[in-house]
Amino acid sequence: NIQQSLHESWEIASQASHQMNDAPIDMVQADAFDDLLLKRAVTDAGQWAYGAVIVEVWVMNTNHTKLFRPDSGWFMDPIVHRGCEGYCNLCRLTNPKHPDYLDPVPLSPGVGLPGILWNESITNTRFRRTVSSTMHDSRNKDIGIHGQVTNRAKNITAGKCRVAWRDIEYLALDPDQPPNRRLKGLVEAGLGWGAGISFDIGDRQGIVVFMTRKCAHVKKLRTLDNEAYLISASNLIGSAWSLRGPRHRVIMERRRQRCVLLRRIRAKLLSQLRSGVTIEEIIL
Q1: What is the pTM assigned to this prediction?
Q2: CA torsion, points 122, 124, 127, 128, in degrees to nearest 10?
């Protein structure tokens, strides 16, 4: 019985070893723990961010060609959505059972709200340096994201602010933007302002998109405390996502070490049994 048990343990260890050797090195595995960790980080960010109705995390694929949203990478304020029977405009963004569901398909940089904010985040440092000295003209009008004068604050930013807020409706109506149904769906759902905070942790990159109601108070969005929270929460979300690869690699390494240990134990036991030593003597 003991020898049969050792043989079964050896077979299990061998199968696990072959599976680990066949697995691609750069494959990002995920389990329930990873999904729950990401969901909790995104939910906590949305619960305490001022005016936030929807929060999403979009991550860059390994080829750096597409942004995609993980299944657990979104949050919607339940208070704003209370009383809904599942067929409102917000449900179009979050409920796959909605007849006109706007699926969050992977986006190229520059397409849709996440893609637009992603492109802007790449040059965000240069943008802040340029705009900080030319924030208002002599008529005290707002300066837009590309420096143009606008009568309404299409983009909210300030010299000390680190988060650029964009008018979602303005982006949806911009003829220079690639057409995107989901971007128009955000406007139809009553979302007014959007901001994206990118992260680059380890070998994982992405952006956390905060979308607020249209009537959100601009000054409260721009407070240093609120923006500091958005940035810190985004870093936490990025850490939760980037943990997946290293976590599963060390799990596989621990399992590999266990397989090696089982091989050594099996070889040692078989050697002792062949030399005439009984199991009782080995145990004692």
Answers
A1: 0.73
A2: -160
